[in-house]
From TrEMBL, chains A, B, C, D, E, F, G, H, I, J:
NCBIfam families: QueF-II
Region (Disordered): 1-31
Membership in a protein family: Belongs to the GTP cyclohydrolase I family. QueF type 1 subfamily.
Protein name as it appears in the record: NADPH-dependent 7-cyano-7-deazaguanine reductase
Highest taxon of source: Bacteria
Amino acid sequence: MAEAAKKASVKNQGLRQLGKTAPLPASPDDAILERVPNPHPDTAYVARFTAPEFTCLCPVTGQPDFAHFVLDYTPGAWLVESKSFKLYLGSFRNTAAFHEDTTLTIGKAIADLLEPSWLRIGGYWFPRGGIPIDVFWQCGSPPEGIWIPDQGVAPYRGRG
Amino acid sequence: MAEAAKKASVKNQGLRQLGKTAPLPASPDDAILERVPNPHPDTAYVARFTAPEFTCLCPVTGQPDFAHFVLDYTPGAWLVESKSFKLYLGSFRNTAAFHEDTTLTIGKAIADLLEPSWLRIGGYWFPRGGIPIDVFWQCGSPPEGIWIPDQGVAPYRGRG
Amino acid sequence: MAEAAKKASVKNQGLRQLGKTAPLPASPDDAILERVPNPHPDTAYVARFTAPEFTCLCPVTGQPDFAHFVLDYTPGAWLVESKSFKLYLGSFRNTAAFHEDTTLTIGKAIADLLEPSWLRIGGYWFPRGGIPIDVFWQCGSPPEGIWIPDQGVAPYRGRG
Amino acid sequence: MAEAAKKASVKNQGLRQLGKTAPLPASPDDAILERVPNPHPDTAYVARFTAPEFTCLCPVTGQPDFAHFVLDYTPGAWLVESKSFKLYLGSFRNTAAFHEDTTLTIGKAIADLLEPSWLRIGGYWFPRGGIPIDVFWQCGSPPEGIWIPDQGVAPYRGRG
Amino acid sequence: MAEAAKKASVKNQGLRQLGKTAPLPASPDDAILERVPNPHPDTAYVARFTAPEFTCLCPVTGQPDFAHFVLDYTPGAWLVESKSFKLYLGSFRNTAAFHEDTTLTIGKAIADLLEPSWLRIGGYWFPRGGIPIDVFWQCGSPPEGIWIPDQGVAPYRGRG
Amino acid sequence: MAEAAKKASVKNQGLRQLGKTAPLPASPDDAILERVPNPHPDTAYVARFTAPEFTCLCPVTGQPDFAHFVLDYTPGAWLVESKSFKLYLGSFRNTAAFHEDTTLTIGKAIADLLEPSWLRIGGYWFPRGGIPIDVFWQCGSPPEGIWIPDQGVAPYRGRG
Amino acid sequence: MAEAAKKASVKNQGLRQLGKTAPLPASPDDAILERVPNPHPDTAYVARFTAPEFTCLCPVTGQPDFAHFVLDYTPGAWLVESKSFKLYLGSFRNTAAFHEDTTLTIGKAIADLLEPSWLRIGGYWFPRGGIPIDVFWQCGSPPEGIWIPDQGVAPYRGRG
Amino acid sequence: MAEAAKKASVKNQGLRQLGKTAPLPASPDDAILERVPNPHPDTAYVARFTAPEFTCLCPVTGQPDFAHFVLDYTPGAWLVESKSFKLYLGSFRNTAAFHEDTTLTIGKAIADLLEPSWLRIGGYWFPRGGIPIDVFWQCGSPPEGIWIPDQGVAPYRGRG
Amino acid sequence: MAEAAKKASVKNQGLRQLGKTAPLPASPDDAILERVPNPHPDTAYVARFTAPEFTCLCPVTGQPDFAHFVLDYTPGAWLVESKSFKLYLGSFRNTAAFHEDTTLTIGKAIADLLEPSWLRIGGYWFPRGGIPIDVFWQCGSPPEGIWIPDQGVAPYRGRG
Amino acid sequence: MAEAAKKASVKNQGLRQLGKTAPLPASPDDAILERVPNPHPDTAYVARFTAPEFTCLCPVTGQPDFAHFVLDYTPGAWLVESKSFKLYLGSFRNTAAFHEDTTLTIGKAIADLLEPSWLRIGGYWFPRGGIPIDVFWQCGSPPEGIWIPDQGVAPYRGRG
Ligand SMILES: [Ca+2]
Ligand SMILES: [Ca+2]
Ligand SMILES: [Ca+2]
Ligand SMILES: [Ca+2]
Ligand SMILES: [Ca+2]
Ligand SMILES: [Ca+2]
Ligand SMILES: [Ca+2]
Ligand SMILES: [Ca+2]
Ligand SMILES: [Ca+2]
Ligand SMILES: [Ca+2]
Ligand SMILES: [Ca+2]
Ligand SMILES: [Ca+2]
Ligand SMILES: [Ca+2]
Ligand SMILES: [Ca+2]
Ligand SMILES: [Ca+2]
Ligand SMILES: [Ca+2]
């Protein structure tokens, strides 16, 4: 899937989707991740997106999988346009891939689009077989003096 | 299973297991639920046992299932002897049954043993297929003026 | 949608999906809700299913909607077969409907299938426009002496 | 304010605001609360709206006040159209009134619009002078057999 | 133990322990529960004492047991003097009894001392054999129109 | 203290303290509880004040005591003016009284001032001798059909 | 907006707003951020302001946005005067800007006013499109040996 | 046990258990831990498995023990195949060993199978004798620039 | 205030207040902070005092302010005598000062008294104007190899 | 007390208490802390014991004190035998000492017994005079590459 998803990262500055009726893309291939200029390009800071609304399909069983994502990055010249990010996530709805793969694919697509100095993604997947999987990835080096709070997602604890 | 498990309810007052080496019974059939006299038989009150250590087998797949149980009852002439209760729960370790069935079987075995005026059991099962099942059963009528707090077990919430 | 979804409630006792490869149904029309005999038909108790993995589409925007469902019922002759319930929920993946409608449709489909003495469903929808909607429905009368704990889902609180 | 706000309750079924650019109304007088037909008019159920994004002005100091609202009702012929509800709440942005008054005004406007069999509103205001005020109001009688969960908002506790 | 502990309930109004050096009583027999006049004897209200510092001995093993108690009552002519209550609880330090017995003994001693219209006690015992026991008892009838909040003690949940 | 504190309840409608520099009253005797007309006198609703900032003195030791109060009432003709309520609470700063007495005195002063159909107060006192005391009082009868949520204050639990 | 907001940072030591009737400024341009001398200028410490009461407008839709801010800094010669800080935050009420921009503008305005050795701001925005954005910025270097606790704001988790 | 359990780590790439009926192995000796190729072998990231469903036997008493495990590792060439991991954990069901031993045995088996650059395991055991034991182990060195969040499991706190 | 409060730090080893009736000092000037020998003077460790019972006066309005303090230090030759610490905190009851000033004054008084190698204080103030202020200060260098847990006080979050 | 308690650390490998009736030792002098061989002596890992069941006496008043302890260490040749640890803690039941002293005495006794490369103990004491004391101590140096999670005990917060 890595190949297809990367294609989503068209570095398009003439925003095609904002303020328009934007149908859900059929796959990451069809999604258009967009970027907007960072209003504070000379300032090192962190932007965090929390996305508890994510679903894709299991490549083994074809059944739905669900995840909660948290994405942190230090913007350089660009910010991710948030509506296109939402549509990109939605485009995985009928796509099948393993948890580890999907999490890294999403992280890499954003990293490729924005070329931030640093980016990390936490994928917190709903349990299968009684055992949830979390995937944590980061790339680049945070600018010196940056402040990066913990993502603080509650650990899974079964029942009781 | 109901038949076998009920056999466990030998109403034995000469305690066989307390203060001795008591091996884990191989099945509910082999378990001996014991009872002791209620030191306050003329007083209406509630005893609650919380058992987060329970496991049995899935009758379809043979894989382990896990549950968290809370048992409440209003003692009459008898109390359940707590060590025998622990062993009885442990005896399900290699027994297969559906969640609804197991929960009611346990509740009924204790009710049969103690003949309390009232008893309830909450079975909070770990998720399978992303969907946990809880089972709630009670029998009898609580004595007038009794106080029965909520069991207060946290609802399942997936991730995030 | 009510018409289509009800069709899903084929009262099928020869289970078609359990222990087999069961693809995700394309719509509630194509889903087959199944039921199994209640092992304790003479006992009044409550079964609770918690389903944090639900998604459908918004009828106005076509964008994904997400919800967390909790279903409680008092089984009569039948239990819902849990794998078919999971597949039924999954069949809404590409279906569009309003929150109030979807919640009641699901509740009524199960009620129609099982004819329980009592059933309730809580639909806890993710926020749109900053305002989440919850929908609470129940039907029938619980058998006398039944115990029905609160669903206890945490209220939405925005940020901070 | 009660007079002005009530005027907002134009019982308008040709929705004016949904799917259009809808500017924030300048006051409750200018807001148009809209209603849509209830898809399940013969079914008794509860709809809950949670609105943590509310602000108005203090009538004594002119400073901003903030509140978190939870609205529950049992729909009859109508549902509140959720976008118009959001705009109605937003229209209080430059309106001054006491906490008790604002909470009841909002509750009564919705009750007047929808004529539900029952409605309640909880207004949880941010602290002033170290002491937050909560306001709880309900009207009408819930249909028999309805299920109404607690609103469950956390109590204020200062620091520590 | 019931006999001994009751003796503790000397209905002593000339307070012997308040504002003096009061050594820990060696047993409930030696403890002196004291009472003071209720400053609002004509008003129906509830007083709650929360005692997370309690320990006694296990009658089977001689090892220490620990409990968290919450006592609620509606005062009549008398209030329990709080220092004597603390000393009374401390007097169980070297006393052996079963959980159910100890909880009711304490509740009855206070009820005997104060003759309140209503009293309840919740004993929340630390786990033994992985299974904690809670004991809930109340006696008398609360005066009409009284307000009695839930004790709200968190349920035990093992680990995770 | 009951006598002195009641004097505080001057039923003063020409507000003396709002929008002025109001020094902290030296005692409840010197405090002036004020009331304002209820803007919705024909509507049955509940107003809740949460006051985590309260301190007085211990009548035995002269040391500071601290409490967290929650006051609920159903307004009739009057609302309590919130600034005067804050000053009234502050006036106990150098007053000595027992927990039960102080809680009821405050509740009765407000009840006397407002003559509401119903009022309740919960006083949650900080621990002394390891044992905190809570006091719960209500008076009057709530109007039919009123909605009164739980106060939901967390129980004390020592450490760990 | 950066230009306008910076103008707010008039380094005014003759406090204009404290202890007076201070109307809400119409925009950050009209706000006057004020500073007072640090009573411990030779001591390295951290001051934290938590502001859960913030609202501005969305530059795309004109609809209200809400945020929860936490500001930390190590004072040098000056402290921010807290009333002017509150009014400055309130001045954004009718100002439109993107989340990333607003958060940095506020942080930079305070940094410009106070010239602290170190400052950081966390902006925790309410969800839009199901995905909340958090923005984290800091500038300067904390004095050696300073203690800076985590801001500890709970992560967003949708529903359930 | 270390010897036997290690034998489980057959580095088998032709998956024997996925998509087939896989009975619970009788012991770690009989379990087959399997591995699959890492789809992102050139990327440094962390995978976390949370396993709240674990039970084995106490070597002293033969009674069941329960634990909650969290496993983190940085994949190199291989990922652990999650179904085989679940079966491996299940294979301890009738195995007796001390908490410290079991925790390290599991961690080492996975480390031996996957040869990751870094791995850690937290074993959170249910209380025995009122005192739970947690075991924390890690091996190897995390690749530079990796992000490893805290496991965040709640501490045990007894009752109250 | 710094001058006056420091006078409180009489380094008095003949304890004047312990085990005697100690009236509340009228001001920090009148308080006598006392110290006792550290029983483990050659061991580097941390002592933490948590003081949720603190109140003083606002220097601008004269109204009560409230705070929750946590003090950590590494004892050298001396420990703070805990009863004198409680009385010292109580002595601020009628003293007026700004939050930043009071927090540092208390921290410095203890540092001056004990001359510990390291000390820190967190002052968590109740909200004023909707915005609470926290103050964090530390001095000295912790001995090598010391363990200093986070203070972990919950952040303020307004309502909802 | 340090002298007496250290005597408890008899480095006894022939376990005297495990699997036998072991009465509660009368004092730390009489307690026998035992050790067992570490099954993984060549592996650096952490063992954590959580002990919420601890009580001793106050040396000033003779009244009971209560604490919650968490002990972490990195085993070398030995593990502490957990039953002897439980009995050792129980032996303080009638021993009087200051909080700081008791905490360090326990930590040092275990350190002396096991000679671990590193050990730490957190003593979380119940409040006296409204102010709880926590004591944190560690000794030795953790082996390189060890993983030591936070103890995560909730801070005390009084009421509300
Ligand atoms: Ca699962
Ligand atoms: Ca599952
Ligand atoms: Ca969730
Ligand atoms: Ca939203
Ligand atoms: Ca908030
Ligand atoms: Ca305030
Ligand atoms: Ca146990
Ligand atoms: Ca658990
Ligand atoms: Ca205390
Ligand atoms: Ca949203
Ligand atoms: Ca235990
Ligand atoms: Ca506790
Ligand atoms: Ca405020
Ligand atoms: Ca909120
Ligand atoms: Ca205390
Ligand atoms: Ca508090």
